[in-house]
Amino acid sequence: MNRASLFTRCLIGFAASAGIGATTLLNAQTDRFGGTESIVAEATGHFRLERIKARWWLITPEGHGMILLGVNHLSEMKDPAVHARTVLGQRFGSDWPRVFAEVERQCREWGFNSAGFEAPKEMRATMPYIISTPFMAASFWQEPLAYADVFTDKFAAEAEARAVAAAAEMKANPMALAWCWTDSTSWDLEFTRRTRGTDYVSFMRELPADAPGRQRYTAFLRERHGGELARLNAAYGTAFASFEAVGGATLDRERAAVFADDREFLRLIARRYYEAIATPFRREHPTGLLIGDRFHFRDHPDEVLEEAAKFIDVLAIQPGDHFFPPLAKLTRPDETWFDAAEFDRLHRLTGKPVIIADHQCGFFDQQTPKTGGWFQYATVGEASASYDRFLRDAFARPYVIGYFRCQYLTIYKDHIKRYKQGLLRPDGTPFEEFVSRLSTINHEVLRALPAAP
After folding, report:
1. For 352, which of 126, 207, 226, 315 could close a Cys bridge (C-beta 3.0–4.6 Å)?
2. Residue 360 contacts by C-beta under 8 Å, 6 or more apart in sequence?
3. What does the alpha-carbon distance between residue 346 and residue 302 come to, in Å, rounded to a whole number?
């Protein structure tokens, strides 16, 4: 045991005997960003990543290691119809600084050190957060699914503007630790075709003939088949009169040659997508951390991840919330377990540390009997035990640097016709037993990591 770990454990023992709470002790050992003072690295004035011994750490601007535990969607408290029914709404009305000071107090008391994704501006000066910017018109779970022609000047201009804005915010506010893009689109060709009847390559193929994406697809086919139309027709089982005619045509998408070409063109779409967004961001803020898409677990083809890895610093994955059945039958379909084998593979493929970007499990409650989006356990005890298992299994992997829990306040969601369960009931009162158990788990996990080998 190193001296810092020994000191920490002695201090914990002293605090317990003196009646000092775990939250007070934990805060006493962290810098203002949440970094633990037992993990010391170079202070650069901005968040960065460093591998210390066997573990990846987020390094705070003051030079201390940090592992993220956050709560997402805190900004939803600003929905007037939602907020008015809560105890905070009744106490503070629309005095948002006071509202979110109380939200932050609760989050910290429960062992969360980050305001996560979609943080309200009132918390951005005092709690680390991740800038979240939408790029696709619809996320993987939305209907109708929407794609963007990433080869257009319009997309490049929008990417430039959003990248410049994100870089400016990050440079102005040291609590802005990274930049991500809100959720992701549905990337996997086979999965999206089966569940939605379309996919990104089919979208490009069906664009008007003069659209940049359609023209890039035609150029790709010509390059792919060495300019020999007869070779393409033989592979596809077709009789096209030109490469241009392939676009807009109905193809046998299950034919091996067509599917192989589509996968390679999907790679080019991903390359252009990441390049168009990341390049201006790197130009404006060379040291800024880039997360990119919050990929839906099992909807991230290797071709896309390989291209993303050329531009991103951290891989963000959202396990669970299956709005559509996965391609293969899962051994444990509730996704409240950490799939170490698949996460290990993703880390090897990309070489990047990983953040669990959005995840949770629910439990039955009389006020909100039907919850959706995530797996629902019968009891608080089962749900908290699942959370405990998931966190400990995830952070046992040295490349996992953060976990973000979905949802602070329980809110009814029209798109799933159920409640999305949070840490608080719809009236804003905490699920006391649940948050008490989560608080204990969070503090134990964060305390254990600096002492781990």
Report:
1. 315
2. 320, 374, 387, 405, 406, 407, 421
3. 9
Burial class of residue 372 in the structure, from the number of CB atoms within 10 Å of its CB (0-12 exposed, 13-18 middle, 19+ buried): middle
Cα(290)–Cα(288) distance, integer angstroms:
6
Distance in angstroms (rounded) separating the CA atoms of residues 294 and 136: 12
Residue 119 neighbours by CB under 8 Å, 6+ apart:
74, 75, 127, 129, 130
Cα 375 to Cα 377: distance, rounded to the nearest angstrom: 7
Neighbours of 338 (CB within 10 A): 22
Map residue 155 onto helix, strand or coil.
Answer: helix
User: What is the token pair recorded at 389?
Assistant: 């298992």
Q: Phi first, then psi: give them for residue 344, nearest 5 degrees.
A: -60, -45
Q: Is the pTM of this model over 0.85?
A: yes
Residue 388 CB: number of other CB atoms within 10 A? 17
pLDDT digit string, tens, across residues 158-210 = 999 999 999 999 999 999 999 999 888 999 999 999 999 999 999 999 999 99
**What angle (nearest 5°) sits at the alpha carbon of residue 270, between those of residues 201 and 295?**
100
